[in-house]
């Protein structure tokens, strides 16, 4: 019998470490070649690590959420035949990193303790008397300093002392009456038992990657926000007409393909917006191709699949690619190259998009565009009030690269293309 050490491989693209996300095996498990051992997450994607050998798992190294460097031992496997462990590697192996599954009990977990109903004081309750002013919990009681001091010395909470003075002020007589017949605090209303307890949840995996990246971006990138109102009545009429007459196999159009087409049309005149900024090297990379990142909410968190070469796609092809990539991101089948390489990002919450948003740039990009909710609104046109379909377009730019003037020019160009959709189809 031999010992096989499975090391975290170099997954490329300069990745030096990866996070343990999910273990698929435990010590004592029999594994076959190509069987999943563990999922690890890099800055680029989640990678399924499979066993290169048959054998029995002796130990696994790294808890869920732990960062492991490339080359470190992840799994120790007992195999038939020779070992791949050198003396040097065996000496480096740290038992402290090996963890066994905790022993579990067959006993059922204890049943939750029922919350006791709030006890009602057995002390006599005094009816509200004429002239007394009741107050809600949280309202500050009014009383003279001497009355407050006396109440403090007697340990009486003024909150529960009814006041007969002006504006509900508590007088010395009110305090005497309360001392003679104290009023118990009212119990919670029937059916409204107070909630208690705090749930703790460790932030790991994709959620932690998102948090780290957004925090780093906000720390390093000075954002400038710009919001413009657009009349999308004509665009929505066109969208509805195209959907009504689409050919078999053609996808149903949303507004997103038109936004991507507008970006592809406008960006050649603003090359420094379709770019990546390497602030460590001080280099701006301006791209000829328009690769639009599309922020997508998935069960695992926010992902950004990329519509590549948007400048070479028509509306229908763009819509098909949006549907394909969105589905792949949500079911976890998106490939690494489909989740990286965007040059500008488009983010939208659809009907939940609200009126204005302040999106965070997807570094190293220098711009992000956020369509907000499409709503019908009364608008004055030619001296008359008419109902139009209006939408605010929010945007953020890296102020180190994009001046406010250029940001405004760019968004105004998008506005013109979207409000006059025929321009999207003109060379």
CATH architecture of the largest domain: 2-Layer Sandwich
- Computed Rg: 32 Å
CATH classification class of the largest domain: Alpha Beta
User: Might you state the CATH topology name of the largest domain?
Assistant: Chloramphenicol Acetyltransferase
In CATH, what is the homologous superfamily of the largest domain?
Chloramphenicol acetyltransferase-like domain
Number of helices: 8
Largest sheet: 8 strands, mixed
What general outline do the C-alpha atoms trace? flat
> In whole angstroms, how far apart are the ends?
70 Å
Give start-end ranges of low-pLDDT stretches: 87-132
How many individual β-strands?
A: 19
Number of domains: 3
- Provide the helix percentage: 10-25%
What is the N-to-C succession of helices and strands? EEEEEEEEHEHHHEHHEEEEEHEEEEH
